[in-house]
Amino acid sequence: MLKTWLARCALLLVVAAGPAAAQDTVRIGLILPMTGPFASTGRQIDGAVKLWMQEHGSTVAGKKIEVIVKDDAGTPDTTRRLAQELVNDKVNVLAGFGLTPLALATAPIATQAKVPMIVMAAATSSITEQSPMIVRSGFTLPQITTPMADWAAKNNIKKVITLVSDYGPGIDAENAFKAKFSAEGGQVTDSLRVPLRNPDFAPFLQKVKDEQPNAVFVFVPSGVGSIFAKQFVERGFDKSGVRLIATGDLTDDDILNDMGDVTLGVITSMHYSAAHPSAANKAYVEGFKKLNGIRPNFHSVGGYDGMRLIYMALEKTKGNTDGEALVNAMKGLQFESPRGPVTIDPATRDPIQNVYLRKVEKQNGELWNVEFSTVPAVKDPMHK
Ligand code: PHB
After folding, report:
1. 34, 167, 213, 303: which has the highest count of C-beta atoms within 10 A?
2. Radius of gyration for the alpha carbons in the chain, expressed in angstroms and rounded
3. Which residues make beta-bridge pairs with 341?
4. Does residue 249's CB lie within 6 angstroms of at least one atom of ligand 1?
5. What is the 248 CA–ligand 1 centroid distance (Å)?
């Protein structure tokens, strides 16, 4: 009798403790390119997520936060498989996504499973339209490109050739630059597209040199800038008389010092610079370097603020992990990031943020993207 009773109690305890323990943990599946040509993006975001948790702890609204990092090596089929496995394992949130094709491969899985999907890096405008479960913590290409086109038109640049990586964010950058630059009276005389993987810029740079526009506007994703810089110097392009302007993806803080003095004076536009002169950013750069041994780049703030969104949403829902409740809680969130003030646009689930014009300068023997002008609270212009 007593034995049966004890056995029943034990069984009840197991039944009670099982789901309770599971519900007390919020599991985040973080899918990143940790190897391959885009590994710097993975390293930056992973480092930022670790920094966030070191600073803010691993408990929110009574829930324990567990991050599961998976390496997709930048291959969409792998991202899709990993996302499906994580969903089958009942993760509460999917996050990461270092490139547009990786985010696109995962969007239907997030929709079907009703799991929030935090896009920390991929920056093609249309990504957030692919699933109501997507919230973006990074940026969009049209958002950062339009201020560059505006600046060029107002600074005596009349003819421009665009040169972009031939996939989503490159096409976005090309279109956004053309639209704004022509609206401001400039002329895009040619639009060149270079393959994303193993790019050979030499023939394109030669074409630009031959055509002699006032400037070449470049978009290449983080990780490709050093290949570009090498071929840029080899072609003697620095002496071509054609100015180089770009989005800040080119002068990525992670690789800027390795790209070398050829970048001195290059003007770019971006939502984040490691040189951003705020107290919040100084603390961020210091903390990031101490923990990870490298300088943070713009993708890192996508990772850091992506974690912030998850923490803020959980606080708002009081620990409720229902996917739609979390996404709704993220809509309209406002916060002070190392990049400056950010609002999550409730209509598009994209960040509204400052875009800065910057110039590469040398300070204390290191190269920095030094901000000289701020365009406040920029929305993705594709979503107006
Ligand atoms: C993208 O694939 O969307 C992407 C990746 C890296 C960047 C920008 C855009 O720097």
Report:
1. 303
2. 22
3. 336
4. yes
5. 11
